[in-house]
Design a protein that fits this description.
The chain is mainly alpha-helical. The protein has one domain (5-314). It is 79% helix and 0% strand.
Length: 315
């Protein structure tokens, strides 16, 4: 049987989300002289401002559909999936290096898929085993590639970086699960509007980060600040506005076990963008990781073919 249109559309949205999210990894490289808190603040202040401007014409109608519990959920999702996650991820890279960070964060699809296997209409974990093993193999290859590089930080910094990476893993896993459940519960709020509401909540958190600048070296020339604003705006619009919109649309089309695998597209596109930025071809381990990730997604899609077709026929 051919794949259902819902499944195909959901996978396409997941791939598009990964393509736009991949730009978020270029931001820290382009403005490496700025601290993680500054990067998070710049990105999410702009994300919040753009979201507020886009949702303002429909604010009264949308606000009437939300309760206080939904507002609390938005604040939590903004913190877990955006503000805190981005600060922890950037800190992990700076303290522990790309090796440890990529290896830990690379297990996001595994964590989301395993937890999602307990959800309603989920595919049994046994059918997802090949996909999870391939995903893990890809993450290990990426980590081994980075481990081949000489360490640039102390053992204490490596340990702090590991804690930050684990924290980032927990944050985004919580976000992916919580966001999927919120979208399933709020049938009368579109995925696009939910993303904009999350952006407003995250923008307010960006305002809270402003006092942190007093403890950070902000001595940069005018050109550096212009570059910082341009990169922050680009990441906010491409990754947070467009990428999140595709992800929310996908979250309503795919079961959580398959949605978790779609996070792999972010890793793939981040790798491609990184290679283009560094003007080089992939190494053997990077090529192996790419193949493992692609096979992981293919096997996961195959495991969902029958359930997706059945649920589509019942809808």
């Amino acid at each position: 049987m051919k794949l259902g249109s819902t499944l195909i559309t959901g996978i396409a949205c997941g791939a598009a989300a990964g393509a736009f999210w991949g730009f978020a990894f270029l931001g820290p490289a382009m403005v490496a002289d700025f601290a993680p808190v500054q990067l998070a603040m710049g990105r999410y202040l702009i994300f919040g401002a753009v979201s507020a401007a886009l949702i303002l014409p429909r604010w009264r109608d949308i606000a009437g559909r939300l309760g206080w519990s939904d507002c609390i959920t938005l604040a939590w999702l903004g913190l877990a999936g955006n503000t805190l996650y981005y600060v922890l991820m950037a800190s992990a890279v700076q303290l522990g290096g790309i090796a440890m960070t990529s290896l830990v964060i690379g297990f996001l699809p595994v964590a989301v898929t395993v937890i999602g296997s307990n959800a309603e209409r989920a595919v049994p974990i046994s059918r997802l085993a090949p996909s999870l093993l391939l995903c893990s193999a890809g993450a290990v290859c990426i980590g081994l590639q980075a481990l081949a590089l000489p360490p640039s930080t102390s053992l204490l910094q490596q340990g702090a970086g590991l804690l930050c990476a684990v924290g980032a893993l927990v944050c985004w896993t919580s976000y992916a699960i919580g966001n999927s459940r919120a979208l399933a519960r709020l049938k009368d709020v579109s995925a696009h509007d939910w993303n904009l509401l999350t952006g407003v909540a995250t923008g307010l958190q960006g305002l809270v980060l402003i006092p942190c600048l007093a403890f950070i070296d902000t001595e940069h020339d005018a050109m550096a600040w212009m570059r910082f604003v341009a990169v922050s705006a680009g990441v906010a619009i491409l990754a947070s506005i467009v990428g999140n919109a595709f992800w929310n649309r996908m979250s309503r089309l795919l079961p959580l076990t398959l949605a978790g695998q779609m996070i792999l597209f972010e890793t793939l596109f981040a790798l491609l963008y990184g290679l283009a930025w560094e003007h080089r071809l992939p190494t053997t381990l990077e090529t192996a990781a790419f193949c493992f990730v692609v096979l992981s997604v293919i096997t996961c899609v195959h495991a969902h073919r029958e359930p997706a077709t059945t649920s589509s026929a019942q809808a």
